[in-house]
Amino acid sequence: MSKIPVQFTLNGTEKAVFVDPGANLLDVLRRGVGDLSPKYGCAQGTCGSCAMLIDGELRLGCLTLAEAVSGARIETTGGLQTGEEPHPLQTAFMEGFAAQCGYCTPGMIMAAKALLDRNPNPSRDDVIEAISGNICRCTGYQPIVDAILTAADRMRGRIA
Amino acid sequence: MTLCTGRGFAAINYPIGMNLGGDPSQALVHSTPDGKFKVALSSIDLGQGMKSVTRQIAAETLGVPISDVYVDTADSDTGPHCMGSFASRGTHRVGNAVIRAATEARRAMLEAASEELEVNAADLDTDGQGNIHVKGAPSRSITVEETALAAQFKQGRTLSGRGIFLIQPSEADPDTGEMSPVSCFAHAALIVDLTVDDETGEVDVTEINSAYEVGRALNPKLVEQQLIGGAWMGVSHALYETTEPYYPAREHGPTDFNDYLMPGPGEIVPHNIAILERPAEDAPFGGKGPGEMCANPVIPAISNGVYNAVGVRCHDLPITPEKVLRGIRANGGARPQGQPTGRR
């Protein structure tokens, strides 16, 4: 079968790639475009390590057909920082020791960003709900929830 | 329906490392021409912090800033031999090997500096800021960078060190079966509070209070995060996770994350930890390391808590609602154990 041309923006940069019919977006980003920040975990939508934002909505790269994102705006942790400045979520994860092996971290951060984009003042339960599709083996989740609440506080302070 | 409350306690002695025919770890340390030190290891960091801790140990032993030390665990084909990251052995075994390698590299560094400063190497000391000076005369000094350059381009010597730490093989005594495969123990005591629903059999851990004794906590924040995450793994092991729910039968076993029951952030248990420090004599700067013992006391404590709440003793894991309900039915109802009246 012939390849299909797909154009989208990844973290603000225009990308144009040829993809196999049926290829998933995670494979295309990692192998085709070279963005290794979304992680390849279960490849069946149950672990959350490939979570990313597509047109502002939280989506799983492994369950998204690459040809379906034509013209879409894709955001991954690879594009969160501003110049040398990490995103407040990244800073809070680092300072709060919210990562051990780090494999779930990109998915956790994108799930958290999706939450904070629509609700800058989340409760602890809101945060738990927002990351409930993401599995972490190492941390016991507590430091992750704390880091997201810390980042939310700081981001509100920045806007205010 | 009644929510029965229960409290369970467990304490453990945890042997650091294991020994099936000798337990060696090696480390190699060498400097670059500009005086940065590379530490080559073959135990990897699973995320609990071995790279951070061995970096601290190397910097402290060498007497150089931690920012000038790099730990490389990239490749066990080309790195020095190590048994690996398991059995809670990382800090203790690898840390000891790093101390030995860094001690030899420090000796080479001071010898190179002594040649440049024309003094006896025994009269030199480091300031931990990247300088080597004559003891009692801080102004007579040379930087580590200048020393490394001189060693490599003038003196023709390396600033390097080799280290190996070996726990000797321990054979069981043929008469008594006695053996001593490990050299130090970590300890923990833990109290779990939980509820058991006598209608559904569901166990809900509500709070954990614990004391862990890990030798010196070489990096207290890393120790704390490892304990919190590891204890939560113990909760998960006790109540949820299994690949063979009807072991040894394979029926109903999960084949992927859709079926494998792993708790999420909704099952977080509040956990208050006291970290006790009793440095071990043969441990690197006294640090034994947490490792697997994070999870170990949680499991018997939960099992005891379930017994305390409803009088059901589960002998295999995980303690599923089905097992609890079968136990309650066999007992003719929930039988809280030894609880003051009104506690239920």
SSE blueprint and pairings:
The complex is a heterodimer of chains A (160) and B (344).
Chain A: E1 4-10, E2 13-19, H1 25-33, E3 51-54, E4 57-60, E5 73-75, H2 88-95, H3 105-118, H4 124-130, H5 142-159
Parallel strand pairs in A: 1-5
Antiparallel strand pairs in A: 1-2, 3-4, 3-5
Helix pairs in contact in A: 2-5
Chain B: E1 3-15, E2 23-31, E3 37-40, H1 50-62, E4 69-72, H2 90-117, E5 124-126, E6 131-134, E7 137-143, H3 144-155, E8 160-167, E9 185-197, E10 203-213, H4 220-239, E11 271-276, H5 298-310, H6 321-330
Parallel strand pairs in B: 3-4, 10-11
Antiparallel strand pairs in B: 1-9, 2-3, 2-8, 5-6, 6-7, 9-10
| Number of helices, where a helix is a run of at least 4 consecutive DSSP H or I residues of chain A | 5
Residue share in helix of chain A: 25-40%
- Write down the overall geometry of chain B: elongated
Mean pLDDT of chain B: 93
CATH names the topology of the largest domain in chain A as Ubiquitin-like (UB roll)
Termini gap of chain A? 54 Å
| CATH secondary-structure class of the largest domain in chain B | Alpha Beta
CATH superfamily of the largest domain in chain B: Aldehyde oxidase/xanthine dehydrogenase, molybdopterin binding domain
Low-confidence stretches of chain B: none
**Biggest interface, chains and residue tallies:** A-B, 25 and 25 residues
